[in-house]
Design goal:
The complex is a heterodimer of chains A (322) and B (442).
Chain A lengths: L1 H6 L19 E4 L6 E7 L2 E5 L12 E5 L2 E4 L5 H7 L48 H15 L8 H9 L15 H4 L31 E7 L4 H4 L5 E2 L11 E4 L15 E3 L24 E2 L3 E3 L5 H7 L8
Parallel strand pairs in A: 4-7, 6-10
Antiparallel strand pairs in A: 1-2, 2-5, 3-4, 5-11, 6-8, 8-9
Chain B lengths: L8 H16 L5 H8 L4 E6 L3 H11 L5 E8 L2 H14 L13 E3 L3 H7 L3 E4 L6 H10 L3 E4 L7 H17 L3 E3 L7 H11 L6 E10 L13 H7 L5 H4 L2 H4 L2 H11 L5 E7 L14 E7 L5 E8 L8 E6 L2 E6 L3 E6 L4 E4 L8 H15 L6 H20 L3 E2 H7 L38
Parallel strand pairs in B: 1-2, 1-4, 2-3, 4-5, 5-6, 7-10
Antiparallel strand pairs in B: 7-11, 8-9, 8-15, 9-10, 11-12, 12-13, 13-14
Helix pairs in contact in B: 3-4, 6-7, 7-14, 7-15, 12-14
Classes of the chains: A alpha+beta (322), B alpha/beta (442).
């Protein structure tokens, strides 16, 4: 472990800062100035087998990974929540403001107002936000962190997969039988060609809804096919492939558009410039896709708050999209 | 696990941009270059260097033909520079940008200097100027791509219609940026409609309901003219109001699918939510009923109010079935029994913003002619008619609107000239009052 701490950038987060002070239990994050809440459940970190040996390139080889403790939102972030950040921008600070992070809420860039209906006519109230870029999703996290004083970010691929598996080594969190998928997930076989309100299907063992399907979810990583093949040693601790270019970045979980196979816990996908293909402006929007009605996100909060310098590394700089 | 250090797109662009800079720094004499460049080179001038103009230029430069950007024009130097830098990044390593400092023209007359240097001009300024730019481009025998809307008032439309005739007589290509007309889903759907799949269209609902657009705040050193030009969306003479600037797309689908222009319109609108003075004079909602010669009635809704139901789609009901279309490549015709008669598979359709330029430049190379100016003008007029109906609260015919609609444009164009609308002592602009506002010249 000690050796791994030196070579793994993500492991810096393991430095104990305030582990003793925070009860590690379920809570509801609320947004001052609105009735919206975000249910957060504790995910006790641990070792697990990430990837698969049978899946396509990119998922192989299966290998041992360890992640720390974190909270994760039980549902995908909804339009109702996201619009607090964008069109009805609500910068009121929470009265129970914590001091995990120090960010000025007014200093955070706001997503532009989209010209068209970004829900593609599928509805907004209670539905997951879609067509958001990773930059937009991360900026939402930054804004939420500034409002609450608690450090929220996107999950890394490792955290996401650990949470999705919920202790299962099988293809899905509920086992290997894809005929059961409809109990837990919205996918091509039952979605009727549109997304659904969050939290309608059965949750996994950690209490997380829609990890499989409904909308695919952003992770923090650059998407590389050889990520797993490059991992060496017995175990990789808190891996994060820090993005340094705009495409492709990692999206997990599959969506209402996808076949059952693409909803597996180990399945991976990368973002694609074609997701903005009918954006008429140059540079293209850094906030919105025009053709990604299957991509949303959920958030995590690490149990151990990283030092301010490490936190700022998570707010990835925007890259112009031509 | 170390972060990956593969060569990135960013560093690639940086490296090649430097290389391209070396090429661009060489002086290039345009008069001499026509010989150097060879016969198949198509020279492009961009007039209007905002986000859409930059997009249009990038699409023009992405066509298969041998195209070069040779001149740019804008009233604002900073907008021109941003545009140039974005294009230089996009086309780094190519020789698509062939212009020097002398080919970057700034000011109200800049369009002339840029147009003079080109074979094809891209007219993408704020819409109020389009009739003037279109007229000059046709007088100089240029092929044209021009963005919608093509004017903001009836005199502007009359000018564009007259210029369109001249362009036709000269055999010039004129492509108008109503890109749904170049979008596979709409084209496939129209084929079905013309084949009688849904019978005759008798009614429809077209929508552009969204949260609104950007605002540019007033800066202390600005003259009133500069402020309005920067914050142009909120001034009717420059933008046409959002029923003209945005909702034109959906209204155009109604005109196109029905195959007619309305006889008359009546409607209602106002400013309910977006009332601050920084929002100039335009309405935040319009609801118009357009009646067509065939008897079809189209309900047109556009709204700029956050927190409401968004909808940017078109629906029509025919004597045998109904159709739904939207810009995300959906086009579905179904019977009244719910049976789907046609469902366009659009997931991999091309980008219509690119297609319209592909058509324009292929035409020029092959000596073919496409001229969208007339429908561009009449559809713009339809949207202006809608605005005239909501501003005045009256039922107005297409013909009287076209022949007698008031001019909105100023007498002079310079930074110290007074724009046609001025703020009161509190900085508020006059907003139309239905029942009182006159929209026809007496």
């Amino acid at each position: 472990m000690g050796f791994l701490l030196l070579v793994l950038p993500g492991a810096i987060a393991l430095l104990p800062v305030d582990r003793e002070e925070k009860p590690f239990e379920r809570y509801e994050e609320h947004l001052a100035g609105s009735r919206e809440t975000i249910p957060m459940v504790p995910i006790h970190g641990g070792k697990f087998t990430m990837g698969s040996d049978q899946g396509p390139t990119g998922e192989t080889p299966a290998h041992q990974v360890q992640v720390g403790d974190f909270w994760m939102s039980t549902t995908e972030i909804t339009w109702d929540l996201y619009l607090q950040f964008t069109e009805q921008r609500n910068n009121e600070l929470n009265s129970d403001h914590s001091d995990e992070v120090s960010l000025e809420v007014d200093g955070i860039a706001s997503a532009t107002t989209p010209y068209v209906d970004m829900s593609h006519g599928m509805g907004k109230k209670g539905y997951p936000v879609i067509n958001v870029t990773q930059h937009a999703a991360l900026t939402f996290c930054q804004w939420l962190s500034a409002k609450t004083g608690r450090f929220y970010r996107l999950p890394t691929e490792a955290e996401w997969e650990y949470a999705c598996r919920a202790g299962s080594a099988e293809p899905y969190s509920f086992g290997a039988d894809s005929t059961q998928l409809g109990t837990y997930a919205w996918y091509k076989g039952n979605s009727q060609n549109h997304y659904h309100p969050v939290g309608l299907k059965q949750p996994n063992a950690y209490g997380l809804f829609d990890m499989h399907g409904n909308v695919a979810e952003w992770a923090m990583d650059q998407f590389e096919l050889d990520t797993y093949a490059q991992r060496q040693g017995e175990i990789t601790v808190d891996p994060w492939v820090v993005p340094d270019r705009l495409y492709p970045r990692s999206v997990r979980g599959g969506s209402w558009q996808d076949e059952a196979d693409q909803l597996r816990s180990a399945a991976r996908m990368g973002s694609d410039p074609r997701w903005k293909r009918i954006d008429p402006q140059i540079p293209k929007s850094r906030w919105w896709f025009t053709n990604a009605p299957h991509v949303g996100f959920r958030i995590v909060r690490p149990r151990v708050t990283p030092a301010p310098k490490e936190i700022s590394a998570y707010w990835l700089p925007a890259i112009n999209d031509y | 696990m170390k972060p990956k250090t593969n060569p990135t797109r960013r560093t690639f662009c940086k490296t090649t941009a430097l290389a391209a800079g070396g090429v661009l720094a060489m002086p290039l004499d345009i008069a001499a270059s026509s010989n150097v460049l060879g016969d198949d080179t198509i020279k492009i001038a961009l007039v209007g260097c905002g986000g859409r103009g930059t997009g249009a230029a990038s699409q023009a430069l992405s066509t298969k033909e041998n195209v070069k950007l040779v001149a740019m024009a804008d009233v604002f130097r900073d907008r021109l520079d941003d545009c140039y830098n974005n294009l230089a990044t996009m086309f780094a390593g190519s020789d698509k940008l062939m212009l020097t400092e002398d080919d970057k023209h700034v000011g109200f007359d800049a369009y002339k200097h840029a147009i003079d240097k080109a074979d094809v001009v891209l007219l993408t300024t704020t819409p109020g100027f389009r009739p003037i730019h279109f007229d000059y481009a046709v007088s100089q025998n240029k092929h044209i791509f021009m963005e919608k809307p093509v004017a903001t008032d009836a005199p502007g439309i009359r000018s564009v219609l007259a210029t369109a005739e001249k362009a036709k007589a000269k055999g010039l290509n004129v492509v108008v940026g109503l890109q749904r007309r170049y979008q596979d889903s709409y084209l496939a759907c129209l084929d079905q409609i013309r084949d009688g799949r849904m019978g005759q269209i008798v009614s429809g609902q077209v929508y552009w309901n969204s949260a609104g657009v950007w605002v540019r705040e007033r800066q202390p050193q600005q003259t009133e003219m500069e402020y309005q030009m920067r914050n142009w969306y909120y001034f009717t003479w420059l933008c046409g109001d959002h029923i003209v600037e945005q909702h034109i797309h959906n209204i155009d689908v109604a005109n196109w699918f029905i195959g007619e222009y309305p006889v008359h319109a009546q409607g209602m609108g106002g400013r309910e939510v977006r009332t601050d003075k920084k929002f100039g004079q335009i309405f935040d909602h319009h609801f118009v009923e357009f009646t067509y010669p065939s008897g079809a009635v189209i309900a047109s809704q556009c709204r700029h109010q956050p927190g409401c139901v968004d909808n940017v789609t078109e629906s029509f009901q025919g004597t045998k079935g109904k159709v739904y279309t939207d810009s995300q490549n959906k086009a579905i015709i179904s019977g009244y029994d719910g049976k789907v008669l046609f469902d366009h598979p659009g997931a991999d359709d091309p980008n219509p913003y690119q297609t319209e330029h592909d058509v324009l430049f292929a035409n020029i190379r092959e000596g073919k002619v496409t001229n969208n100016a007339e429908y561009g003008a009449k559809t713009t007029m339809t949207a202006i008619l809608g605005r005239m109906a909501t501003y005045s609260g009256q039922l107005i015919t297409f013909e009287e609107a076209l022949q007698h609609g008031s001019s909105l444009m100023p007498d002079a164009y310079n930074w110290d000239a007074p724009p046609p609308v001025l703020p009161d002592t509190e900085g508020r602009y006059p907003v139309a009052v239905p029942g009182e506002t006159q929209v026809l010249s007496t």
